[in-house]
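Same chain as my last thread, 437 residues:
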Amino acid sequence: MVNELDKILIKYDQPDFEKRFTEIRTAVIRAAHLDRDKENQLDAILDEVTKRDDEAVAEFTEKFDGVKLTPERFRISEAELNDAHKAIDKKLLKSIRQAIKNVKEYQSKIFIGKDKSFKSTGIRYTPIKRVGVCVPGASAPLPSTVIMTAVPAQVAGVKEIVVISPPRYNGSIHPVILATCKELKIKEVYRIGGAQAVMALAKGTKTIRNVDKIVGPGNAWVETAKKKVLGLVGIDSIACTSEVLIIANKQANPAWVAADMLSQAEHNPGSAVLFTDSEKLALEVLAELNKQLMELSRSKETIDCLMKFSAIVVFERMADIPEWANLFAAEHLQIQCGNKSRQIAAKIKNAGAIFIGEYSPVAVGDYWAGPSHTLPTGTSARFFSALNSNDFVKSTSIIEYDKKKLAASAENIIRLAEAEGLDAHARSVRIRQENRS
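reply #2:
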C-alpha cells in the first residue's frame, strides 16, 4: 500500500510535472461528468419521464434503487414526518436547531434582496416561488444538505420548498432527513432520487408539480440531469464530486492535513489535493495517509479515490501556488500556512469556499459556520458560486421615463435604433415626439 500511494506525490523538478498536474485536474473534472455512453442512458431516462410521467419515475426507482413504489407512495406523509421528528435523538435535534440558527443568521446578513430605485430606473427582487432541493442518500444520510439548501431559500422568502431524496433507508428516506424537514416546516418531501426525480421536478408529473429552480448536490447522474433541464428550470451549479485543495507550508500539522484529505477522499468519489512548498511536509503527510487509512472502515474505497483523483504536489516556491490553485478552482480550499494564511487567501480568486487557518476544517463549513456547503465542483468555481440566499431571488429591471426625460433622450435612441435597421423601434420613440403638446 505504501508503494501504491507514493504515486500520488508530484514534485516541481520532475520533467513531467505539468503533465501530471494536468492529468489530476482533468481527472477531477471528469469525475463530475458522465461519459458518452452514460450520457446517452441519461437522455433516455429523461425522455421516458417526459413521455410516461409517473410510470417512468416508478420504473426507474425500482431499477436503480431497488424499491417498488406506486406514484401514490412517492410523497412522504405528514404522519411519517411527525414520527421521525418525535423519534430523533434530542441531543442531535438540539445540534440541528443550532445549525439552522447559524445558517439563518449568516444568510440573512448577506441577503441583497431589497428593491432599489434610482431617478428613472431601478431593480425589483422577487423570491422564486417554488424550489426543488436534491438531498443525496446513497452512502449516508445528509440532514445537513437540507439545512444548507432550504434555509437560504427560506431567508429569501421562497414559499414552496420541495425535497427529493432516494429511498435508500428501508425503502424510504432516512428518518434524520425527515426530522430535519419537519423542523424546517417543509411538508412536501418525495422518496425519489436520481435523474428521474430531477426531470419530474423540472417538467412536473401527475403527482409532482413542477418547480422553478432545482438546487443541491448529487452524483454525476443528478448533476448532468440538472444541466440537461436548465432552461425548463433554473439550477444552482454543478455540485458533484467532493473536493478539497489544501495549501500548506512547513508550519502545518501533517496529521491534520492528512485527516482533512481523507475526509473528502472517503466520499467515493472524492478528491483530495495538497499543494506545498515543503518536501518534508509532503512526505510526512504521505506517511500519515498510510497510517490513518488503516483506521478507516472504508479504506479500500478511499485508497481508490486517492489514486484516481488526488495528489500531493510539491512546488519550488509558495509564491507560485496561488496561480495554480486558481487554475484548480477547488470546491473547498483550505489554507494552513500559519500567520501567512490570510495573506495567501487574499490571492485566491477561484474557490467554492476558503477555509483559513489550521482550526478551520471543511467540516466546520459542512455543518455549522453558516455559508452553504452546496458548492461548485470540477473547477467550475471559475464561474459558479457557493449557493446562498441571493440565489433564490430573481431581479426585474424597473424603467420609468416621463415626457421630459424621453424627449431629452429621444434623438440618441432613434439614432441607435436606425443604426441597427430597426425602424419600428425608432418610430415607437419618434411618434411620441411628433405628438407632443
